[in-house]
Design goal:
- This protein is α+β, with helices and mostly antiparallel strands.
- 22% of the residues lie in helices and 34% in strands.
- The protein has a 5-stranded antiparallel sheet with strand order 1-2-5-4-3, with helices on one face.
- The longest helix is centred in the C-terminal third of the chain and has 12 residues.
Amino acid sequence: MALEFAIEPTPNPNALKFTASQPFLEGRLSARAGDNSDSPLAASLLAIDGVESIFGFQDFLTVNKFAEADWETLVPHIKEVLETL
C-alpha cells in the first residue's frame, strides 16, 4: 500500500510539513542544499530547484524552500519524490 501524505502549513511560510499515513523513516533525516547526503530521499528532494533544506523523523518530513521559490511549483515535485517511497 502506498503512503499517503497530508500537507500542513507551519508558522514559517517557507516550510511545509508532509505527514505520512505510517512511519517511513527509521531515524532522523536532516539535510541542506549543497550537502552530500547518503540518503537517496534527501538527495532527490534537495535536487528540486528551490528546496533549501529538509528535516524528517518517523512519519513526517518538513521541507523548507528558498524565499523566492513558489510552493505551487515545488509541491508537485515533492509529491512525485514521496510517491516513490
